[in-house]
Amino acid sequence: MNKNLSLHEFIKEELLTSIKTGHYQIGEKIPTEMELCNRFNVSRTTVRTALNQLTQEGYLARHQGRGTYVADQKVKQTLSHTIKRYSDQVAIQGKKPKIMLLGLQVIPADQHLSHSLSISRNDAVQRIERIRLADKDPTQYEVSYIPWSMAPGLTKKHAETSLYAALQEVFGLHIAKTTEQVEITFANERICSHLRCDAGLPLFYIETTAEDKHGNKIEFSRSYFRGDKTNFIIERLYDQNP
């Protein structure tokens, strides 16, 4: 046992390793609390702490009266350079992707949007509110802001397919660079209603600014990802020359 880990952390790591290596398969029932107590020679409170953490992080699903089961895999999304759309990234994992539009309206730019999009106060901005789903489960709640002058008249069809593809194919706008800021936040009541989660669930929060090759700001967005349904892959390429 790693002496730097507490008892519940050690049990959590042991169970997580068993899940990630396939010893416990998706949908499989894991040993009962009492069985785990006997296996690790610890109290029920210690086992419950480990199981609660794994449940909150989306690796286990606990069903009253039935036991604890290995949860479905989290949806993986790539943060590093990729040409794959959300639907492609989800579909390749064997899940059915869907983007659902909640709202599309034109609003005047406030001070924050003026700064984020490098436009003037009160300039027309299209506010696009969407949910992304995988196998009917909401994984991401997103609000995007695109200047009207950049892409006037975005439609429901554009928003529910690939917004970036529409910007390029319909409006001739090519996204050359995105800057993303990632933080951890917690779900409030409004976000819970969209993501169908409990209040206080840890979420990934990402602010993104998209630019063309000339540095013109095309989009600013705020996205909330369920921490128990999503993880991210970051791939970096390094110069192989000595």
TrEMBL record:
UniProt KW keywords: DNA-binding, Transcription, Transcription regulation
Statement: the UniProt record of this protein carries the keyword DNA-binding: yes
Top-level taxon in the UniProt lineage: Bacteria
UniProt xrefs under InterPro entries: Bact_HTH_transcr_reg, Chorismate_lyase_/UTRA_dom_sf, Tscrpt_reg_HTH_GntR, UTRA, WH-like_DNA-bd_sf, WH_DNA-bd_sf
PROSITE patterns in alphabetical order: HTH_GNTR
SUPFAM superfamilies the UniProt entry points to: Chorismate lyase-like (SSF64288), Winged helix' DNA-binding domain (SSF46785)
HTH gntR-type domain: residues covered: 5-73
GO biological process, any: negative regulation of DNA-templated transcription
Molecular function (Gene Ontology), one example: DNA binding
Cross-referenced PANTHER family: MANNOSYL-D-GLYCERATE TRANSPORT/METABOLISM SYSTEM REPRESSOR MNGR-RELATED, MANNOSYL-D-GLYCERATE TRANSPORT_METABOLISM SYSTEM REPRESSOR MNGR-RELATED
Protein name stated in the entry: GntR family transcriptional regulator
